[in-house]
Amino acid sequence: MSPRAMRMTPTLRYRDPAAAIAWLEAAFGMTPHFVARHEGAVVHAQMRLGESWLFLGPDHADDQYGMHSPLALNGTNQCVCIALEDVDAAAARAMAAGARMIHPPHDTAYGAREFSCADPEGHVWSVGNYWGEP
Hints:
With 134 residues, the chain is an alpha/beta fold. It has helices spanning 17-28, 70-73, 87-96, and strands at 11-14, 31-38, 41-49, 52-58, 79-83, 100-107, 113-118, 124-128. It contains three helices and eight strands.
């Protein structure tokens, strides 16, 4: 077996992880890869978007990492970025799913097109056609 390539995976906390899963599917086309439940409640989920992953779990007061939903923090200090081709279609899809538009689709000074929005719990998402430098 060959060694696995390194990967970085963002992890977010939600007060309602089941609703977050449904929203991420509707807004960005993410698919649930694995969802662990305890007594019916989501305790961990792995979402896929292309080759990328997002982990999420429930917000609780005694989180060992001190991670919380933006609803518990009165805001957030992070942003998850998604690179894709059709920015305007992605913005329309996110808005139809109930995203709060922070910055509508626009062209940047560095030649990209992007928008930013917040999900129902306040996590910030930056979506654009900038893939980073090769």
